[in-house]
Amino acid sequence: MLASTDRAPLLGQPLISALMPVYNGAAFIAEAIESVLAQTYPNWELIIIDDGSIDSTPQVIARYQDQRIIKLAQANAGEASARNAGLAHARGVYIAFLDADDLYLPEALADMLSFLAGNPQFDVVFSNGYVIDERDRRLSQLSDHRPGIFVGNILESLILNAAVITVPVCTLTRRALVDQSRASFDHELMIGEDWDFWIQLAQHGRFGYLDRLTCAYRVHQTNMTRRSGWQRRRADLIRIRLKVLRSNWFGNLSLATRLRFVQLLIDLMPGDSDQQRSILNDEPVTNLPFAAQAEVWRQTGRSHLLRGLDTEFAAECFRTALQKSSADRKSRILLFVLSRLGRWPTIGLIKIQERWVNFNGALWRHGKVKPQPVPAGLGSFKNQSV
To answer: Of 48, 254, 268, 356, which is most buried, counting CB atoms within 10 Å of its CB?
Structure first.
C-alpha cells in the first residue's frame, strides 16, 4: 500500500513531473536530488518513490523540505511498480525520469522543454548525456553507444535495438501520449522495463532528438543490470520480445524488420530447441512469406551448429527451410554437407559463408561511425543490435 508523506501544497500545477524511484540509494540520491534543485527551469515537481529501502535512504530524503518535492513510500515491489506509482501521482504536463543514482545537468529540463515546446510534431524528446562512474568520472557519452539517431516514427528501429533511446534520464515525454497509449511499466520485468515502456509509446507517438548534453547516467556495481544475472536478463528480454511478436500490430511492420526481429528473439534461446521450435511455429512467424520463414529456420540451424549444439535439430531446421521454400539453395547445400560429411565440414562451410558476408559488410560500413562497446551498466542493451 502506497503511503504519501510530507506532501506540501504547491502554488499551481507544475509543468514537469520528474519521477525518481529508489531502493537503497543512500550513496547517490542526495546528489541526484541536488541536480534537480539546481535546474534553471523552476516549475517542476520531483516525485520520489521509496521502494521499501532498508538503508538510510528515508533519512536522506527527509532532509529535503522544498515544497516541490513529493515523497512517497511503498513496500518493496520493484522499480516498475515504483515508476507506475509515480505516474499515478504526477500532475505535470510533461513526464521526466531520473533514477536516484543519475544526475541532471543544470539546463536539462529547460533544454528538453524548449525542444518540445518548439516542436509540437514530437511527443517525446531524447538527448545526449554523459556516462559516469561512482566517482563522477566521465567515461563516454550516450550517443557513443547508440546505433544511430532515429526520429519520428521510431517503432521499427526501437524494437530491434533498445539502445536507440538508451536510458530514461535523457528523455522528456508529453503526459498526453502516456495517457493516450495507456502506457505503464511492466512489474514482471526487472530488466528492460523502460525499453518496454518506450515501445508502448512509440506505437502512438513521434520521437525527436535534442543534440545537447542534459544528464549523467551512472554505471556502478549496484546498478540493476549488474546485480541481475544473465539468465534473468535473458528471461526479461524474451518476455519483452514475445509481447511485441504477439501484438496486434506486429504484422504491420516491414518484412525486413519482422525477419530480423524473429532472428533476434531466437538468438536469445541458445540450446533450447523446444522453445525455438515453438516460436518458429507461432502464427506471427508462419504469416511471414515462405522465403522469409525458410531464412529464419536456416539461420537457427546454422546457429545451433556453430554453438556446438544438437546436430539433429540443425538438420531439422534445414529440412524445414526447404519445405518452406524449395528454392532455398543455401539450406539445400548445408543439409547435403551435414548429412554426407557431418558437423565439422558443415561448420567450416558456414564460417566461409560468414567471412564473405562480413567482408561485404565491412566494405559497406567503411567510413561509417561504429557504436562503442556498451558499458556493463547498460547491459540490458547488449545483444540487441540491429
So the answer is: 48
- Cα-flanking dihedrals φ and ψ of residue 94, to 5°? -125, 150
pLDDT tens per residue across span 184-204: 999 999 999 999 999 999 999
* Dihedrals phi, psi of 130, to nearest 5 degrees: -90, 150
Q: For position 225, what pLDDT does the model report?
A: 52
Pick from 374, 386, 370, 369: which is nearest to 131 by CA? Answer: 374
Tally of residues, the chain: 386
Identify whether the C-beta of residue 181 lies closer than 8 Å to the C-beta of residue 95.
Answer: no
Matching residue, cell 505516474 = 87
Instruction: Render pLDDT for 162-190 as a digit per residue (tens, 0 to 9).
Output: 999 999 999 999 999 999 999 999 999 99
Cell of 157: 528501429
Residues 386 and 383: their CA atoms lie apart, in Å, by: 9
For residue range 369-385, list pLDDT tens digits in order: 555 554 555 544 433 43
User: If you write DSSP's letter for every residue of 175-232 in order, what string do you get?
Assistant: HHHHHHHT----TT-SSSHHHHHHHHHHTT--EEEEEEEEEEEE--TTSHHHHS-HHH
